[in-house]
Design goal:
Blueprint lengths: L2 H15 L9 H31 L5
């Protein structure tokens, strides 16, 4: 049984019990991937800013 078939079965059971159907397969995956990409971009920007400020404040050895 694949994920779509399982979802259809779970949705049918929820309807029989008068409950909310479960989320469709893959609904949370897109959001999570988007959040991860955003976090990685944010981390790269912060890391680059830290490198830039660290090299700018370093005093050259005499």
């Amino acid at each position: 049984m694949n994920a779509n078939q399982q979802h259809m079965l779970d949705a049918y059971r929820a309807a029989q019990r008068g409950e909310q159907p479960p989320a469709a397969p893959g609904v949370h995956t897109v959001r999570t991937a988007r959040e991860i990409r955003g976090w990685l971009r944010f981390r790269a920007v912060v890391r680059e800013a830290f490198r830039t400020s660290a090299t700018a404040t370093a005093t050259p050895a005499s």
